[in-house]
Amino acid sequence: MARSTKADKARQLNAAYTMLRRNTPLSKAMQRLSGQFDLSERQAYRYLKEAAHLGRPVEVTEATVPITLKVPARTARLLRACARSSGLTIGAIVTRALTMFLSTQRRHG
User: Do the beta carbons of residue 9 and residue 58 sit within 8 Å?
Assistant: First the structure.
């Protein structure tokens, strides 16, 4: 069996969270999660246990691919400082910035 991706884990955790919010009995929730996601009951229980500590569903992220960027040294320093102070990863900051920038560009076609 292949390992779960981060997105798979987020979907499984959110399903567990939803069942707990609906007051689904633990044994029934464990069986549903196990069947729906082809998990062992033990793993389903772990997701339910983790979901019990959540205040809201987790974000299901899109798969990522590595790329290499060359930026000026000053920009790299600012980016690292921003990451440290915000608690975000450099990848998350760059993704947000590029998404905002690209959404403002006119589409030519």
Answer: no
Contact between 50 and 13 (Cβ < 8 Å) = yes
- Tell me which residue has tokens 């450099």: 90
* CB-based contacts of 61, cutoff 8 Å, min separation 6: 6, 7, 10
Which residues neighbour 50 within 8 Å (Cβ) at sequence distance 6 or greater? 13, 16
Distance CA 90, CA 98 (A): 12
* pLDDT tens string 55-108: 999 988 887 889 999 999 999 999 999 999 999 899 989 999 999 999 988 766
Domain residue spans in the chain?
A: 6-51, 64-109
